[in-house]
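User: Can you help me understand a structure? I only have the sequence.
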Amino acid sequence: MRIGILTLPLHTNYGGILQAYALQTILTRKGHDVYVIEKEQKPFGVSPWRLPVKICHRVVDNLTGRSKPIFPEWRQRRELPVIRQHTDRFIGKHIRRKTFGKYSDICEQDFDGIVVGSDQVWRPQYFDDIRTAYLNFAKGWNIRRMAYAASFGTDVWEYTDRQTEACGRLLAGFDAVSVREDSGVALCRRHFGIEAQHVLDPTMLLGPTDYTKLLDGTATPACGGTLLNYILDETPEKNALAATVARGRGLVPFRVNSRVENDKAPLNERIQPPVEQWLRGFHDAGFVITDSFHACVFSIIFNKPFLAIGNEGRGLSRFKSLLAMFGLEDRLLCNPRNTGIDDIKCKEINWDSVNATLAGHREESMQFIDRL
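Assistant: Let's start by predicting it. Here is the structure, written out as tokens:
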């Protein structure tokens, strides 16, 4: 079958890139012709007719004392290719894409089936129109429709009544529905009347050797440390916790991410390192400390002991669901403030048990995908 994957845009987010790569890889191995559906990016990030309106609003803001850049789009257009140079190279090399001007440009003849997922593809704030993530543009088409490990990102319902009604009606037309979090099962049942299956994040369908093979021929350097400190939202408390763990365990901290989201940082400090370097970080690490969902995932894949700092702003239910699946709830720390090494009561991880659990869930998730 010719399959399209509808997911969030691929930019500098390692987890977002690798979940798309993993799902495409698995579907390709099953004999399908697979493409990630890509929406063409507008030159300035917004429609031409909206840009003058935005500029006028910014002028008014400045006149009323609220200082804002008048035309940040020029800066973004100049800087983004620099910031994304390494991640764009990986995407271009490893992910097959089919680009459309807008989702309504997709035709029934383009695909025999569309898979929605994974990542927080069902979170309204990430789509101009959340109905897109339920294939509203494909209404009435004779194609297969599947949601694989789709995530709401939170256990709090964020849809309006109108969105709930429209998306529920569209989801009823899917051939198979699965979600990434156990809370998503409850949300689908409560708000859509749909029984969804709980499956693995696509990245967990591949094993560590699948990822280390991506390093072949790349001359990716060793990381030079033993404590992978991968923090998305830095705070003094998180930095202090990482330093405490390093001292307490006799580890050497290292990082594999830039200040990519800090638009006040110098441009050279915002360039996101290669995806291969991020993967090398898990290969080299003796311990991982992170507030990233996918860094927890890859710690499990690579069998690396880790400590997860709860990241409520980015969706805490994702962490809880993942860790509960493997009996690793004690790895989650929700308040890093004033935490000493004696306060971190993580028991040693039984990787044989974790890997056996992963193998079981992987088999169930593969069986779900076969329903396509």
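Now, to help you interpret it: The two ends are 9 Å apart (CA to CA). The chain has a mean pLDDT of 91. Let me know which part you'd like to focus on.
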